[in-house]
Amino acid sequence: MVIVMGPGATREHIDALVDLVTSAGGEAYVTRGVSRTIIGLVGDVRQFETLDLRAMPGVSDVLRISVPYKLVSSENQPGRSTVSVGGVPIGGDNMTVIAGPCAVETPDQTLESAHMARAAGASLLRGGAYKPRTSPYAFQGLGETGLKILADVRAETGLPIVTEVVDAADVDLVAGYADMLQIGTRNMQNFALLQAAGEAGRPVLLKRGMNATIEEWLMAAEYIAQRGNLDIVLCERGIRTFEKATRNTLDISAVPVAQSLSHLPVIVDPSHSGGKRELVLPLSRSAIAVGADGVIVDVHPTPETALCDGPQALVGEDIPQLAEAAATLSPLVGRTLTAAPEPVGAGV
Amino acid sequence: MVIVMGPGATREHIDALVDLVTSAGGEAYVTRGVSRTIIGLVGDVRQFETLDLRAMPGVSDVLRISVPYKLVSSENQPGRSTVSVGGVPIGGDNMTVIAGPCAVETPDQTLESAHMARAAGASLLRGGAYKPRTSPYAFQGLGETGLKILADVRAETGLPIVTEVVDAADVDLVAGYADMLQIGTRNMQNFALLQAAGEAGRPVLLKRGMNATIEEWLMAAEYIAQRGNLDIVLCERGIRTFEKATRNTLDISAVPVAQSLSHLPVIVDPSHSGGKRELVLPLSRSAIAVGADGVIVDVHPTPETALCDGPQALVGEDIPQLAEAAATLSPLVGRTLTAAPEPVGAGV
Amino acid sequence: MVIVMGPGATREHIDALVDLVTSAGGEAYVTRGVSRTIIGLVGDVRQFETLDLRAMPGVSDVLRISVPYKLVSSENQPGRSTVSVGGVPIGGDNMTVIAGPCAVETPDQTLESAHMARAAGASLLRGGAYKPRTSPYAFQGLGETGLKILADVRAETGLPIVTEVVDAADVDLVAGYADMLQIGTRNMQNFALLQAAGEAGRPVLLKRGMNATIEEWLMAAEYIAQRGNLDIVLCERGIRTFEKATRNTLDISAVPVAQSLSHLPVIVDPSHSGGKRELVLPLSRSAIAVGADGVIVDVHPTPETALCDGPQALVGEDIPQLAEAAATLSPLVGRTLTAAPEPVGAGV
Amino acid sequence: MVIVMGPGATREHIDALVDLVTSAGGEAYVTRGVSRTIIGLVGDVRQFETLDLRAMPGVSDVLRISVPYKLVSSENQPGRSTVSVGGVPIGGDNMTVIAGPCAVETPDQTLESAHMARAAGASLLRGGAYKPRTSPYAFQGLGETGLKILADVRAETGLPIVTEVVDAADVDLVAGYADMLQIGTRNMQNFALLQAAGEAGRPVLLKRGMNATIEEWLMAAEYIAQRGNLDIVLCERGIRTFEKATRNTLDISAVPVAQSLSHLPVIVDPSHSGGKRELVLPLSRSAIAVGADGVIVDVHPTPETALCDGPQALVGEDIPQLAEAAATLSPLVGRTLTAAPEPVGAGV
Predict the structure, then answer these.
(1) Is B253–C241 a contact, with Cβ atoms under 8 angstroms apart?
(2) Is the alpha carbon torsion for D280, D284, D286, D287 positive or negative?
(3) Same-domain check for residues A41 and A106
(4) What H or E segment, with its residue span, contains residue C337?
(5) Residues B91 and B43 in one domain
(6) Do A287 and A138 share a structural domain?
(7) What is the pLDDT of residue B304?
(8) Are B203 and B84 in contact (CB under 8 A)?
(9) In what residue span(s) does the DAHP synthase ferredoxin-like domain sit (chains A, B, C, D) (predicted)?
C-alpha cells in the first residue's frame, strides 16, 4: 500500500502517518520526491484499510497494490481449478458446453430442450425455475414445480442441472434439486445470497454483474469461498455500456484477464450478452477461441412462444453448428470438448 | 406498441402478425412505407408482450410506446406524492434533509452524529446497521445491536430513522425498529427484497442501482408498489461511468426526469456519488437547485476513525454550511426546509 | 512515480530497474513488502515516461502520482483565472451567461436570438456557423456567411461572439470574426485544431469530449496552453453513459473537480447535455448552485423550425426565468451576474 | 418514421402534424391507441428530419425506423465488399493480417518490424508517422520523415503501407506515400478529415471512436463514401466503459453487428483495445473466430524502448503463434489467410 501526500503536506502530516502505521503494527518507508512525498507501507493490508488513511491530513491518495481477494486469487493457488458438476468437469483442459431453455415452462419443453442441448454439444442442462425479471408483470418462473421438472429431465437424459437461485431463503430448497447453483447478474452483490450459496454444498456458477468490475466479481466470489466453497465457476455475460445495438457488451477480454487473476474457471454466456439469435454462434466461437473454459447458451424448441428471452434462443440448424464449432475449435486452443454423461441405464 | 417490419418482410409475414394480434384481442393497423412497413397495435400492451412478437418472421423491431410501469407513473397520478416518515414529510413543497453516519458504530458516535444531523438542517436520521460491502473483509455492520442504538437515539433526539435492509429475511426485524426502510444500490433489483419491503408497512427509500436506467429504477419501485405500498421515495446516488475522478457520476438530470415520469418524490445522495467530503456541499446545493425533494448526507464526528466511508462524511464547519445552503436555496425553488421534530418531552 | 513489482519479481529485476532509473538521472527508493516490492521514483516524471517502465521484466504496474499537465494545473497557479472575452469576464467572482442559437440561420433569426440572449441574462452571444453533424445529410452551417451575420449582430447589440471552429485550416478565418473560439466535444482531441487555436490570439472555449475523462480534458487544454494561450474556459456538456433518457449525462461533479485541479474557469452547457427544453432551466440552476463560472444555453425565436437542435432551445417564458435564476442564485454562491455590454453608441 | 403523441395530445395537435407532413410531400397514417396515438409517416425520411417534428406540440417521441446511412448500408449493396490495398484484399473470404510498429521511429526499427509482421502472417504493414497523443509532452511522430521510411521499407519488403493521417491539411501528403489511410479513434468524427480522406483516392481504414455507437461509426463511413470513396474498412478497437482492467473494452459483438448492417469489411485491433501484450493473442483468436475480415496488431523488435505503446507490442515467440492462429483458425470460419506480396524483384 502506498500513501501519496498532496503538494501541501507538511512534515507533521508525514510524521503523523508514520506513527499511525507503526502503531498499527506496520512499517512505513518515506520517499520525498520533487513535488510529492510517497510513503510505502509494509504489513497487513487489511489492517491498514481499517485506518482510513485517506482521511488523514495531507493525504492526496492511497493506492492499494495487492489484490483485495485471497482465496480465489491466482497468487494463492498457481494451477487452474477444475470444478465437478454432477461428475461433469469445468476447467482444466476441458471445454464445457451448458445449454437449455432460459426458463422451465413445461415438462415437454424442458425435455425437448435437453435433447437439443445434448445435440448442441452440451454436457450440462441449464434452465430457470426462479426468474429475476425487470418487470413485475413478466413471467417469474415456476418455482419448485420447475425444479421437479428439471430433476425428471435429468433422470431421463443424464444431464446434470444448473439452475438459478434468487433469494437466500431458497438456497437449501434449490440445492436439493440442482447440481450447480447459478447466481445471476442482478444478484452478484446480494451478499446474503452469496454467503448462503457458499454453505450449500453445491458448486456455484457466478455471473458477473452487468456493472461490476472484474475485481468486484472476484470479491463476490471471495464471499462464497470464505464460507468454505471453492467450487466456483465465473461467467462473463456482458456489461452495460453506451452501445445499444446489443443487449449488453460482451467483455471478451474479461476471460483472459479473470483467468490470470484467479484460478477459477471462466465461461461465457453469449445468449444474454448479445440478446439476438444470430449473434450467439459467432460469440460462442469467439469465446472458445479466446480460451474460455466453457459457454452457456439458451436453446428452445419453439422460441416464438418462449416465456422468456425467446429472441436469443438457438433452434434448428443452429444446434449442430454449435456442436461443430465446439468440437473443431476446442483442440486449437488446447482443450477437449467435455462429453455428456449417458442417461442412467443407458448402457443396459 | 409498434411493429417495424424488415425490408424483406412479405405480405404473408404481415398477415400472420395481424392475425396473431387480433387473436390476442388487439387491433393492428398497417402502414406501408417506401422501404418499411409498420404495424401499430391497439390494446393491452402487457398482453402483447407475452406474444414475443420480435421472434415472428419478418419483424425487424418492436417499439414499446407506453411506459412499462403503472402504479408509480405520473400518468396514473397527476399530482406529486408526499411520503410521511414518522411524521416528517418528503415531497410536495418540502425540502427534506436526511443525515447521519454511514454506519452505526457505537451509541456515542450515533448520538453525536444525530446532533450533527439536526444542526445540518436534517429532520431524519440515517445510519446503517446492515452494510453491504464489496469486500467480505470489510466491516459488515452491527445488525440488530445497531438497530437498538438507532432506536435509543431516536428516543433521545426525536429524529425518525432511515436504515438499510439487505436481505428479505431481515425485513420484518428491521421494520420493527425503522421509520423508513432503505434499499441500497446493489439491491435495487433484488426482487425478493423489494417484495418483502412492499409488505412491511413502512415507507421505502429506493436507491437507484448504479447501473440502472431510470426506467428500470421505476420498475423496481413498481415491484414495491404492487404489494400495496406506494410510500416510496426515489434516491439518485450516482451511476457508474468511465470517469473515475469521482466515486460515481451523479446523474443530476435524473431528478427532473424521474419527477416527470413518476409522482414519487426524488432525493439525492451527494455523499455516495461524489465519495469525497469537498464535493458534498457543492453537490447538495446542486441537488436542491435542480428541484430535488431532499438530500441524504453522511456526517460523522470523527471521520478519520469511521468504519465506513469516512472520507465523504461532513464534519465541523461543513455542518452549518449545509444547514444554511438548505435554508437559503430552498425558497428559490419554491420549497420550505422541513423542520426536525422535537424530542418527546422536549416541550415539557 | 511508483513502480509496483509483481509477486514473482526477482532481485535482478529490481536491480535492473534501479539502474535504469538512475541512468536516466532519477533516484529510486526500494520498499520490500510482504507480498510485493515497490520502487518510488524521484526526478522528472516526463523523462521516466519515455522509459516504458511497464514493459520491464517483473513489473506489475506503474503508478503516476503527479498530474500530467502543468500550465493549466492549479498547482502551478494557485488563484483562479479570469478570461476576458471582448471585455466580458468569465471566472473570478463572476457568473457569466452565454446564449444564442445553436446554428446561425438568417440575420433576423440571429438578431432576434441575440435580443433573447440579453433578456435571458447573457453577456455573450453564441451561434454556430460551422456545425459538426453526425449525419452528412444534416445542415452543416453557413460558413463565413454565418460569421458575417454574427459580426453584424454584434455591432448592433454589443454582445461579443462565441463561435465554433471545426478545422485547423479555418482557425484564422474564424478568429477574424469571433471574440472567442469554441472547440466542440467531437474535436476535443483534434490536436491540430487545439494547436491552431492556441496560436490564434483569441480566448478558447474548450468543451469536454463526451467520452473524455477530466484528466484528458485538462490535457487537451494543455495543448492550447503550450502554444502560449492560457485564455481557456472549460465547458462541461455531458458525457456518454448507458442512460438514454437524456441526450448525455451532465457530469455536474466535474465542475468542482475541474476547478480544484485547474485554475481555468469552468462553465456548463445544460442544453446539449439534457437535450430537452424542459431540462435546461433546472440544469442551469443546478450548474450555478454547484459553483460553475457560467452557463451556455441555446435560445431560438422559433424552435420548431430550427435547423439544429430545436428541441432544446429556450423560448418564451423560459427567457425571463433563466435571467431570474441567474440573478437570484449567483449571490448565494458568492458570485455576481456579469452585465451585458451596451451596444456601441447606446449611451449617445 | 413514427410519431408518438403524448397522453395529453389533442385532436388539433394531431391535425397540425398531419398537415405539416402532408405539406412536406409525405403521407401520415393515424392510429389511435388506448392511451396513446401514433402517426406513421410515409415518404422521404431526410425531409421529415428537417421538420423538427419533436418540437411540435403534443409530440412525445419521434422514432426513426430506417437507418440514417445509405451508401454503406447492407440494404443498398447486398453482397459483402472487398477492398484492395496495394493489391492485397481485405474482405470477401479473406482473413487479412496487418502488423507493424505503433510508431515509425527509425529505418532499422521499421524494417525489422516489417520482417516480424510478415513472419506473423501479415500481408500489410502498419506504422504511424503522425501520432495523436493525449499528452502534448508525448512523442508526436516523425511526420514526413516517417512516411519516407515507410516507403523505403515497402520497397524492400513488398508490403503495402497503412498509416494514419490526423489533419485534413495533411491528407494529400500522406496519400502520396500510403497505400491506405488510417483515421484514428479520436478523429472518427473529425468531419473535415473524413471528407478529405474521401477525396484522396486511397482506401481508408476507419477506426471506431472509443465512444461511438455502431450507428455513428457507419455515419462517419458515410461521410467518406459521400465523397465517392467506398473503399472503406471498418476497425473495431475497443470502446470506453467503466472497466479499467483493460485499456478499452473490445466490443467483439460489434463485428457481426456491423457486418450485418453494412457491406464494408470489419477488422479488429486487439493491441489498442487490450493494451497488454498477453491479451493480444487471445483477442486475435477471438476476432478471427467471430468472423472478422482481419486483425491489425502492433509488433516491435524491442518493446521496452518503444516510443509509443510498447507494452502491447508482440515480440519473440508471439510472432509465430499469431501466424499459426491465423492459419489454423481462418479455415474454420470459411476464410483463407491472405498471402503477403513478394518484394519487387524477389522472384529474380
Answers:
(1) no
(2) positive
(3) no
(4) strand C336-337
(5) no
(6) yes
(7) 76
(8) yes
(9) 1-66
At residue C348, the pLDDT reads 43
Q: What band does B345 get if pLDDT is binned at 50, 70 and 90? A: low
A346 is a domain residue: no
Q: Under an 8 A CB cutoff, do C31 and A43 touch?
A: no
C140 and C228 belong to one structural domain: yes
pLDDT at A348 over 80: no
Using a CB-CB cut-off of 8 Å, the residues of chain C touching D135 are: 68-69, 219, 222
Are A36 and C244 in contact (CB < 8 Å)?
no
**Antiparallel, parallel or unpaired: β C180-183 and C161-164:** parallel
* Residue of higher predicted confidence among A72 and C21: A72
> Which of A215, A241, A289 faces D286 most closely, judged by CB atoms?
A289
Per-residue pLDDT, averaged over C77-85, amounts to: 92
pLDDT tens digits for B194-224? Answer: 999 999 999 999 999 999 999 999 999 999 9
Helix ranges, D99-201 (H): 107-119, 144-157, 171-175, 191-198
Residue B348 has pLDDT above 60, yes or no: no
The Cα–Cα gap between C189 and C198 comes to 14
Which CATH number is A193's domain given? 3.20.20.70
Report residues of chain D scoring pLDDT below 50.
347-348
Q: Are residues D43 and D104 in the same domain?
A: no
Number of domains in chain D: 2
And the C-alpha cell for B164?
Answer: 438499510
pLDDT of residue C138: 80
C218: its cell numbers: 485538462
Q: How far apart are CA B291 and CA B331, in angstroms?
A: 11
For residues D73-86, b (16+ Cβ closer than 10 Å) or e, as one string? bbbeeeebbbbebb
Q: Enter the ipTM.
A: 0.91
Return the CATH number at D8: 3.30.70.1140
Instruction: Quote the crossing angle between the two packed helices A277-290 and D277-290, to the nearest 10°.
Output: 140
What lies within 8 Å, CB to CB, of B20 at 6+ separation is B51, B53, B56
Residue D76 lies in a domain: no
Q: Which domain holds residue D102?
A: 82-337
Mean pLDDT, residues A114-140 taken together: 91
pLDDT at C346: 54
Of A209-218, B24-33, B248-257, least confident by mean pLDDT is: B24-33
Q: Which residues of D touch A286 (CB under 8 A)?
A: 252, 286-287, 289-290
Give residue ranges of A with CB < 8 Å to any C CB. 2, 4, 7, 29, 31-36, 38, 40-44, 61, 63, 65-66, 75, 240-242, 244
A180 and A57 within one domain: no
How far is CA B160 from its chain centroid?
18
Residue range C104-124, pLDDT digits in tens? 999 999 999 999 999 999 999
Same domain? For C232 and C305 the reply is: yes
- φ and ψ at B250, to 5 degrees? -65, 120
Same domain, D88 and D44: no
Query: A293 or A57: which carries more pLDDT confidence?
Result: A293
- pLDDT at residue C22, as a whole number: 86
Contacts of B308 (CB under 8 A, 6+ apart): B102, B103, B128, B131, B133, B138, B139
Indicate whether D74 belongs to any domain. no
